[in-house]
Every structure is written in C-alpha cells, then in structure tokens.
From TrEMBL:
Residues 306-384 form the RRM domain. It comes from Dicentrarchus labrax. Keywords: ATP-binding, Kinase, Nucleotide-binding, Nucleus, RNA-binding, Serine/threonine-protein kinase, Transferase. ATP binds at K48. This is Serine/threonine-protein kinase Kist. The lineage of its organism: Eukaryota, Metazoa, Chordata, Craniata, Vertebrata.
Length: 404
C-alpha cells in the first residue's frame, strides 16, 4: 500500500514488506517518476515508479526491467535491486523498480570541466558502453542527465534504459534526445514521422551511442551547450572544423598534448558515417587515457566520496610539537565523529597535504552530512573549507600536490 499526500506524491512505499519513506522526487518524465527513498539512516535507494498504463501494457516498465536484469553486474551501470508492484489508496496499481541511489548528474556539474573530470567520465562511460555493446544492446538515450556519479563506487554510471534495444531488433521508432541524436537516428525519426516503414535491417546500431558521447565530451570540455550548433547547416557541412575551432578557443588554458588527444578522440566519435565511427573498445585505447591528471578543487567540492579534506585549520607550529599534534588529532576525530562513523583520520606533517585534515567515513552519506555541516564553520577563528577527496587516492596514500 502507498500512502499519498494531496499532491498525489507518495509519502511511503511498502517494499518487500518494509516501509520506505519518500524523501524527495528526483525526476519526473512522461511515463515515470523517480524518488529518493529511505528505510532508516543506513538504507537509501531510488524508486522509479511507472505511470499506470490504462491500456494494460506496462510496456516501459517491462522493457527497462528486462534490459537491466540482462546487463547487471557492471560497475558503470546502475544496479537494479528489485522490482515491486504498488497499490495506492485510490486503487491505482503501478509497477516500480528499486534502484541504486546515485549522486549528481553530468548536467548538474559546473560547465567547463577539468581534464581530470572529462577523462574520468569518458573512461567510465566507454567502459559501460563497451560492455553494453558486447551484450548486443544499444542505450539509445545517452545524455548528461543519464550519466550520474556514484560516491561509494567513485565512478560515473549509466542510467535510464527505457529506449534501449537489441541491435538488429529495434523496437523503438523515436530514439535519442535532441542535441545528442546521431544523424542516422535523425533520419530514421524523420522517416517514421512521415509514416515510412523501415525494414528490419535498417535500424540504428551501437554507433548512435558513440555519437552522443562525443557531443557530451565536447560540451564538457568547452562548457557550451551544443544543441543549436549541431542542428546548424555549418555543422552538417563541416563538423570537424567546428570541433577544431572549439578546441583552438580553449587550448590556451590546457596543456597542448592532452587537448589534441581528446580532440582526436571526440572527432572519431562524430563521423557522419556510423560504420566509420570508432567503437567503445577502440576508444578506450586512445592515448588520452594514458595521461595522469589531478582534480581541481571544484571537482572535489562537487563529487562526493567517503573521504573529506578539511583546509584552513592547522598551523605549521601545531605540526612540529608532538603533544599539540596528538591533541589536535584527538580533537578532530572527536569533532568529525559527531557526523558519522570515522574509519581513519590523517594530518600530514609534510607536503603534499601538509596541515590538511583527511577524514575517511564509513560511507558517503556520512561524509556528505559532515561536509554540509562543517563548511563555513569556524575553529580557532578560522573558516573551515571542506571538500571531498578521492577514496582510491587516499587509500594509496597519494595526496594531490596541485589541488589547493
């Protein structure tokens, strides 16, 4: 049974015999709404509730469920925990997916991303696409809103498989979102709109996903939404020249060699002929992925992880007096434990990271709460700056020198 409020938004879901509280609505589309739900401090998830289908088809639910069940287990694809049916207090039955709760989407991140973030996103999504395409599936709706950050797994993940299909068996006429739609999908959509029937062999292929990712990476690098650009005649006439111009305009603030590698990678995804476009497995071999980058402070503020980094707290004088140093360690641990379970705490005495406080929490929910409550607070008259920090780097003892 679902209890609803006056706006018809569920307040509680009963999932596998347990009541989950709806904390917020994360998104709403034509056929489904997505909610953040909680069964207590330690358990949070997302529920995708499909609209009741008056024709009895429940097509969207069955389609997405079947695709997700078939492709589970990859670290860069959202995890499906289970499925259930809801019976509302007004007698409406809806189908629901219980999904892994993820964090910010690429569309929510600051425009003009760092090379570290572009590389991280590109590699993660290419890994997801390589797996998906090997399994014979086309995502068919790749866009910034469908790429989300996982704080606990420290990677980007693909979501929303409502338009996905098996290559060679395209059962969806209208695919992809305007601005991220490959030329062959644009043509197919136009023909379908005109009532022209396509034969079974003329459907779109996995190459449409590579086109979408190329546009996403170009937007991330440039900080420009390209919807109007890719619809222009200039783009249709010579998209490569426009890509070159975008990179030339931004190359002054980035090191030249990585920029050229990224440019060439993107251009290989944006060839008009889908047969000539690079495939995901080949793209992963690009020299762009062999170049190490450090995150910018903006990345570490925006991308949650279980580790917090606290700046502007410790003076050099505190680090060289052993008694004072031990007192500070104890004080900081006591303070940080107010917000969640602390696994470890580190205050380096030398560079890199000298005087910064690194706090590893048991999970990202605790670190996010700590970051929210600590940012802007004062200790000994100093304002605290709290950013997240990559768990993998922290575990390796690697402290970025270039991030301040």
């Amino acid at each position: 049974m679902v209890i609803e409020n006056q706006s018809m938004k569920p307040v509680l879901f009963e999932i596998f015999g347990e009541l989950w509280t709806v904390q917020s609505r994360l998104g709403q589309g034509v056929s489904a709404s997505v909610y953040r739900v909680s069964s207590g401090r330690a358990s949070t998830a997302a529920v995708k509730e499909f609209q009741a289908d008056t024709q009895g088809g429940d097509y969207g639910y069955h389609k997405e469920r079947s695709v997700l069940e078939d492709i589970q287990g990859h670290k860069n694809i959202v995890t499906l925990y289970g499925v259930f049916t809801n019976h509302s207090c007004v007698g409406v039955t809806t189908r629901c997916l219980l999904l892994e709760l993820l964090d910010v989407s690429v569309s929510e991140l600051l425009q003009g991303h760092s090379m570290w973030l572009v590389q991280h996103c590109a590699r993660d999504i290419l890994e997801a696409l390589a797996f998906l395409h090997r399994e014979g599936y086309v995502h068919a709706d790749l866009k910034p809103r469908n790429i989300l950050w996982s704080a606990d797994d420290e990677c980007f993940k693909l979501i929303d498989f409502g338009l996905s299909f098996k290559e060679g068996n395209q059962d969806v006429k209208y695919i992809q979102t305007d601005g991220y739609r490959a030329p062959e999908a644009e043509l197919q959509n136009s023909l379908a709109q005109a009532g022209v029937e396509m034969d079974g062999d003329s459907g779109c292929t996995a190459a449409v996903d590579m086109w979408s990712l190329g546009i996403i990476l170009l937007e991330m690098f440039s900080g420009i939404k390209l919807k109007d650009t890719v619809r222009s005649q200039e783009w249709k006439d010579n998209s490569a020249a426009i890509v070159d111009h975008i990179f030339a305009s931004n190359s002054l603030v980035c090191p030249a060699i990585p920029v050229y590698h990224l440019r060439d990678l993107i251009k290989s995804m944006l060839l008009n002929d889908p047969k000539q476009r690079c495939i995901a497995e080949t793209a992963l071999l690009s020299p762009f992925f062999s170049i190490p980058f450090a995150p910018h402070i903006e990345d570490l503020v925006l991308l949650p992880s279980p580790v917090l980094r606290l700046l502007n707290l410790i003076d050099d004088s505190h680090l060289h007096n052993e008694e004072e140093y031990e007192d500070i360690l104890e004080d900081m641990k006591e303070e940080c434990q107010k917000y969640g379970s602390v696994v470890s705490l580190l205050i380096p005495k030398e560079n890199p990271g000298k005087g910064q406080v690194f706090v590893e929490y048991a999970n990202s929910s605790d670190s996010k709460e700590a970051q929210r409550l600590l940012t802007g607070r004062t200790f000994d008259g100093k304002f605290v700056v709290a950013t997240f920090y990559p768990l993998s780097a922290y575990k390796r003892g690697y402290l970025y020198q270039t991030v301040q």
